[in-house]
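Dear Dr. L.,

I hope this message finds you well. Following up on our conversation about the binding site, I have prepared a predicted three-dimensional model of the protein together with calcium ion. For your records, I am including the exact sequence and ligand specification that went into the calculation, followed by the C-alpha cells. Please feel free to forward this to your student if that is useful.
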Amino acid sequence: MKFLVIIAMTITSFATLASHNYIVKLKSGLKSNHKINKTLKSLGNTQSLNTSFGSFQLVTADKALNLKSLNKSLNSQIEYIEKDVTYHAIRVANPMTDLVDDPRAKKQWALFNDGKNSGGFFFGGKAGEDINVVKAWDITKGSRDIIVGVIDTGVDYSHEDLKNNSWTNEAELNGVEGIDDDNNGYIDDIHGYDFVNNDGDPMDDHSHGTHCAGVIGAEHNDKGIAGINANVRIMGLKFLSANGGGEGSDAIRAIDYAIKMGVHVLSNSWGGGEQSQALIDAISAANDAGIIFVAASGNSSSDNDSRPTYPCSYDVENIISVGSFSGTGKKSGFSNYGAEKVHVFAPGGNIISTVPNNKYKKMSGTSMACPQVAGMMALLVSQEMMTPVQAKERAINTSVKTEKLQKYSQSQGRMDTYRLLENIQN
Ligand SMILES: [Ca+2]
Ligand SMILES: [Ca+2]
Ligand SMILES: [Ca+2]
Ligand SMILES: [Ca+2]
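The resulting structure of the complex is given below.
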C-alpha cells in the first residue's frame, strides 16, 4: 500500500504542471529513441523518465490529444500513451480538524479519538472512544445564554482561548471600583468571585480551574483548543487556593453566589472524605434553583459505593458523579467508580486544555472528566429546558454501554454527546 501512495504522489507532482499531461511508454528494443522523441516533441514539451520497468516520456501539450489515434499511429514505437492521472493522498478523515481551525484540536482525543491522538508514550488508543461531540455540533455549539460556574482555583478569564466566553457582570464592568454596583453583596465581581482571598477577582493562581474551563468552553478560533461549547459563558468561582486546597464554607459561599447570579451548570473537580450538612444544604438549594451539579468521582481508584467521597456521593438529586476513562476506552487506573454512586464516565486521561498565561497543558484526573460532562450538560440545556434530574437521567440513559466500563457506573458505559442531544436511549 505504501508503495502505491508514494508512486501516486510522484506522478501527481508532474500532473500539476499543466492541464494536458500524458505518459508515453516507449517500446523496449528500439534501435534509437530519436525518431519517436522528435515526434513527441511535436506534440508538446517532453521530459524523460527512465525507470527499472521501462523508458517513459512525459508530454505536456497545449491542447487535448487524441489518444486513440496516437496509440494506433505510433504503435511500432510506443507501448501506449495515456493521460497522466491525478491522485489524492489517502488519509483518515478527521471530521473535527476539518471543522475547526484550532491548531491543537487534533490532540483532543476526548472530542475525536482517531486511535493515535489518545495514547501515552507506550500505549495507543482506540478510535471512537470519545464523547462523539463533532456530530453533535451539527445540532448546537452552545449558547451564550448558558452560564457554567467553575468552582475551583479560579479561571484565567484573560486567556486568548477563554476571554470571549467568560461571564461578565456588566454592572461591575461599567461600574465604580470599590463599589458593589449591582448590589449583589460582592464588590467588583466582574468575572466571578474569589472566596479564598475575598476579592472580586477570581484570577487563577494555580492552573487547575483554567484547565477545566477550557474543556467546557475554549473558543473556536484559530488558537489553542476547541471547547465542547463554542458559545457559553464561564464564571470563575475561586474557593481553592494557590496550593489547591479550600474550605467547605467557601464552597458554600460559591454555590450561594452561583444561585444568586443565575448559573445553569456547576463544574466541581474537587472533593474530600468528610460529610458536611452545610454543603448538602447548599447543593440542595442549587437543585431547587435548577442548577445541574457535576462532580468528579475522585482519583483514589476506589469504589464510591462502599467508600463514599464528597460532594460527588451525596444523595442530592442534581449531582452527577463522573468517572474517567482513557483513550483505550478503559477506566482510568486512578478513577473512582461505583455501580450506584457514580453516574457516568467521560474522558479524563491525557487531556489537553488551557492553563494561565495563554498556555496549554495535558492533565489527567477525574478533574478533567468532570468538566467534559459539565460542557455536555451546557450543550443540552442550551437546546432543551429540563430539570437537573431529567438532565442526569438523560446523561445516564443515552450513554453508550461498553463492556470495558459496564460495572463502573449507573450508565454502564461512556457519555455520548450526540445521543444525549438526540435522546437516543438504549
Ligand atoms: Ca457586585
Ligand atoms: Ca464595582
Ligand atoms: Ca483574587
Ligand atoms: Ca481555540
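In brief: Residues 172, 180-182, 184, 186, 189 surround calcium ion (ligand 1) (CB under 6 Å).

With kind regards,
A. P.
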